[in-house]
Amino acid sequence: MSIVDGKYIKASFAAPYVAHVELSRMWTEYGEIFDKISRNPDVIVVVLSSSLPKLFTAGLDMNALDAFARFETEPARRALQLRSFILAFQNAISATERCPYPVIAAVHGGCIGLGIDIISACDIRYGSSDSSYSIKEVDVGLAADIGTLARIGKITGNHSLSVELALTARTFSAPEALALGLLSRVVDGGRDAVIRAAIDLAQEIAGKSPVAVVGTKRLMLHARDNTVQDNLEYTATWNGVMVQAPDMRDTMVGMKSKTKPQYAPLVTKRGAKL
Fold first, then answer.
1. How many CB atoms lie within 10 A of CB 143?
2. Is Lipid metabolism a UniProt keyword of this protein (predicted)?
3. What distance in Å separates the CA atoms of residue 180 and residue 195, rounded to the nearest whole number?
4. pLDDT tens, position by position, 196-225
5. What 3-state DSSP class applies to 181?
6. pTM for the whole thing?
7. What is the pLDDT of residues 93-133, one digit of tens each?
8. Main-chain dihedrals φ then ψ at residue 37, nearest 5 degrees
């Protein structure tokens, strides 16, 4: 069932509470669709993949740069317009990070340039065994500016290799992406296999308490960007409210009766928004 369709991107339910977003060409539309999904109380987990048969993304659609021709020529005014353009682009690609639900990237084929920006903002990344990766921007004359350089050092475990890949733009394989920490799993096969694996994972997560799932994502993102003590205090405040939900009680009842807990959705009144 369709959730929302754009000109280049479609989003549908792959399973109960699991949204599947398929990319084609995009970026402004990408942000808009994820912001709509973020307000959908029938979603708990999102799987992000490409609708293209042979690759995840070849990078930035160079037609998007046509906008530059309409900018001012005077340096200060042109710089302000370029800054606004870049910030809007960053905001769109960051939509998966500000989405309250965990987003699982299912990558196949080539994931180049902008593709790394996109998956770096996701929470979990699976890659097919045929996938390959490149932080390509340095080869086209710029430093990556839409999120890769801001995030890759925080989401991977090898700073030296991250810098090497960003400075050389060389292509690296799925096993190397796994060793770097960019991927958490390499799935044998191609597009269908990695999407199936991601949806299976999403269904497992969707069976958990939605309050716990949303809270875990929020707290882990906060921990990434703050000190341990700041995160402990934030967590105490967050859970001071969230542990009052019936979800812990429902979990205990399910454990005692050896049945699957039935959690209330995040929004129980139809028509209400998060």
1. 11
2. yes
3. 21
4. 999 999 999 999 999 999 999 999 999 999
5. coil
6. 0.91
7. 999 999 999 999 999 999 999 999 999 999 999 999 999 99
8. -60, -35
